[in-house]
Amino acid sequence: MLIDAKTFEKNKTIETEICVIGSGAGGAVVAKELAERGRSVVLLEEGGYFSTADFNRNSTEMVRKLYRDCGMTATLGKPMISIPHGKCVGGTTVINSGTCIRLPDRVLEKWRSQEGLSDLTEEDLSPHTEKVEKTLGVSEPPRELLGKHNLIVLDTAKRLGLSSGILRRNAPGCKGSGVCCFGCPTGGKYSMVVSYIPEGVRMGMKVYYHCRAKKLRMRQGKIDRVIGVISTANGERTIDVRASVVIVSAGAIFSPIFLRRNRVAPESRALGKNLSIHPATRLMALFDEKVESWRGVPQGTYIDEFSNEGILFEGTAVPPSLSSVSLHRVGNELTNIMAQFSHIASYGFLVSEDTRGSIRHVGEKAIVFYQLEKKDVDRFIKGTEILAELFFAAGAKKVYLPIPPLPVLDNSGDIGKIRSAKLRGKDFELFAFHPMGTCRIGNDPHHSVVNQNLEVHDVEGLFVCDASIFPSSLGVNPQLTIMTFATRLANYLHQNASRYF
Amino acid sequence: MSVRLNSREKKLIEIIADALTPPTPSFRLNASDIALGEEVNAVYSLHPWAIRWFFRACLWILEYLSVFRYGRRFSRLSQEEREQLLERWLKSRLYWKQTVVKFATYVILMTKYENDRVRAAIGIPDRRGL
Is the ipTM reported for this complex over the cut 0.85? Predict the structure, then answer.
């Protein structure tokens, strides 16, 4: 059942076995998996509920409805990095590109060898990944749906012998509408709101939206209840959820804040630290031929030739509104570039970074500290050079850079200017879509927040299940890995039911 | 703080928009043709208060700080001077200048290029046809 908590006329108390906070890739999956196993599950979501019929392709309206703070969440540091993320039933899965990449072996090996996470093996995780992939219909889209902006770069990369391919996505019904980031208007992308959540509701799960989890109450070191708050026109209401298991899935920015505000894991020096975000950027290029980047899958192809160096290239289609901002031009020149928008292609890359940031809070507002390190700036310089070269090799007439002091390259001979410009972090226009690591897994309660079963050290029945648990950045889009861990957690709770229920 | 922008602010938005993307032979629409001031106002009123406050501050900083360089407010400058000032600030090594101009132009350009008439003028089909 999906219930708008704003309709409550008085405070409410609910008895349940499991309370899940947050309905994104972690929360929705673990909630549905547990409901399917016959457990009574309540899911609290701060944002609103929007179905496929509400997604009208208007980016301004959708950003306001689906994104936290109208998509204007940003880091403090140089450069200021925008971290847009979802605040609605389904969380960021509603507004992501639907890319599903398995956790790379090298990352899992590093976690085992350097972090001592011996339980996390491929044999342990693979069945859960396969289950998620099956549920979400993860597959490669057909080539005709990819859109020219993806194919121009992919075909050039192949011609130059770079390792590259078509991205697998959880969008088996994709029609190539090109607006994944503003809610899929056809329901072809299997975000949580059209997949796990309706299935969980069918199994008896209750979803209360417009309800922000505020307080966590414990009794003798065990979980007792969660108190949610609902802001209505007639003042504040509360919902008191009595549960023996609480799963926090509020994302890597808000999960540590929720735990800290409730004085959980006070001895852990890792809570809210170790933040990685996969800083990313994009280049645009002007072609003689029409590209019409609004048609087809926005993020459909990748180049992973440089992933060992921490650079992963992925397709991106930027709407005209965002493109106009990213061109860093003024006057007739900007008007004329935008008049040729149908000839502009874009492509991006993310960096698996060494930089680590931290999360603090003032009241309920998150403050994200993140200062890009020199080593990562070098990765951005290298990534920009490679992508500019690719665009020129593909026949681009001009390449527009995400660097306000050096906004455009007229030919491949100009690429040297990128390195000679002695760029610093603040010179780049960056975005980040994958905050991770702020409640990291580990064996030592002082240097981690949760154990290998995702249970908070020393608090029985309290779990964290979202991207905040990853001990390092993944180097790939994290949603499939989050869902894998959520399925694994549901399995663990089912197998240890007598201990928790 | 008021949720709505006042008429001076709406006019200033249209002036900044026309400095950023003036009408040219290949694109003839100017900001007042699409009532951009009103449209930004509609979008602006839905934003959280901190964003509204910051946007408004950026508008007025842009309007008045040009006095130090040109002896006149931004809205009294010629088109050429406005473009020069915006370009200089966009490329400035002073981070706060970049931030002010980026944030003000972000809201204005985002709103302008989401407008259906503008999208049609640059060749993007009607949303329903996609």
Answer: yes
